[in-house]
Amino acid sequence: MSAKFLYSLLKVVFLGALLLVGTGCQLPYYAKSAYHQAKILAAREDITSRLKQNNLTAQEKHKLQLASEAREFAKTKLGLNDNGNYTQFVQLDRPYVSWVVNASEKWQLKHYHFDYLIVGQMPYKGYFSEEEAQAEKSRLEAKGLDVYLRGVSAYSTLGWFKDPVLSSMLRYEDHDLVNTIIHELVHSTLYIKNSADFNERMAVFIGNLGTEMFYKAKDGPDSATLKKIKQEYYEEELFSQFISKELKSLDDFYQQLPKNQRTEEIKDARLQEIKVRFKTELRPKLSENSFKRFESSSFNNAYLILFKTYNQDLDQFKTAFLKLNSDLSEFLKVMKGFEKEKDPLAALQKFNAD
Fold it and tell me: Residue 34 to residues 9, 31, 37, 42, 320: CA-CA distances in angstroms?
């Protein structure tokens, strides 16, 4: 065991020990997570050194250079804290860095939360092993919850460690890689405890905004890439409006449905209505390949509630940004001012209404 790996392991174990306080006995989970996180930290190499290696493909070299440009832009032009993130690279031996499980009540669009001392309640739990994630999925399903499992290519340690660019991230299209870097650096800049929905929606908004600004500066206002990005984000805005309305309607449906009528058949039929409306109302307004995964996915509450976390009411952030004369620095100050609010989303709505 190298000294570098031992140091990383001790640091991660220390974090795990802090997380264990007040969360019950989850020592095996934290021990395994600490071990795998330490392996990632120990495998980091500076991107500048990586770029000098002769075994890189032209595509890999391009992606690493682009990631470095995005990090520098986020730091110098967007005012985000980089904390040394994305200056290093890690080659993984798997397609995803981790697998994430989230769950919801069966008859309510309500997150099942996992409790952590430092970051508070989180609506998901990550595993470095797909098998362990599958076991957690089965455990939650046995409790009568709707569950969804997905592989993820990137995540933020919220400033605890210097997050590297991962080989799993290099599969992204160029502008998606830029967006991911900016999105995760938003989390390093501001993360409000117990407020995952607020944090993720803010990061989505700034990620999209920052990516447009990046390509406008890099390629000019009339570049093909910028036009493509603007079209994608316009369609995401349409989807956000659609899914926000559908989720609120579904929530009302669950609340009004008598308990003696709660059957899987009735539920499945109601969920299929969302897919039908997507095809008839929204699909004609979208590009051919937009949201294909949504159209073909099997719905349950755990899957749909992800859109509540990431996509619902994104226009609230846009409204605040425009109210502040499109000044991102002022926008970040206002968002940071919500840190002590019990419900930062409600505070955001109040700010927009005043």
Answer: 6, 5, 5, 12, 39
pLDDT score for 16: 47
Tell me the CA end-to-end span of the chain in Å, nearest whole number: 58
What pLDDT, in 10s, does the model give residues 291-350? 989 988 999 999 999 999 999 999 999 999 999 999 999 999 999 999 999 999 999 999
Supply φ then ψ for residue 84, to 5 degrees: 80, 5
- Alpha helix stretches (DSSP H) within the chain: 3-20, 27-42, 47-51, 58-76, 130-142, 174-189, 196-219, 224-256, 264-277, 292-296, 301-310, 315-323, 328-336, 344-353
Tokens of 117: 């001392």
Cβ burial of 265 (10 Å; 0-12, 13-18, 19+) is exposed
Furthest-apart CA pair in the chain: how many Å?
Answer: 67
Cα 280 from Cα 295, distance rounded (Å): 11
Which amino acid type is present at position 46?
A: D
Helix (H, G, I), strand (E, B) or coil at 127: strand
Other C-beta atoms closer than 10 Å to the C-beta of 26 total 16
pLDDT by residue (tens digit) across 9-27? 445 444 544 444 344 456 6
Smallest Cα–Cα separation from 128: which of 162, 147, 155, 89?
155
Give the burial string for 287-318 (b: 16+ CB within 10 Å, else e). eeebbeebeeeebbbbbbbbbbbbbbbbebbb
Residue 35's pLDDT is 83
Tell the burial category of 131 from Cβ atoms under 10 Å away from its Cβ (0-12, 13-18, 19+): exposed
pLDDT in tens, 101-117: 999 999 999 999 887 66
Residues 204 and 183: beta-carbon distance below 8 Å: yes
Torsion of CA 163, 164, 170, 173, to 10 degrees: 40
- Give dist(CA 327, CA 97) in Å, integer: 35
Q: 4-13, 146-155, 162-171: lowest mean pLDDT where? A: 4-13
Q: What are phi and psi of 17, to 5 degrees?
A: -65, -40
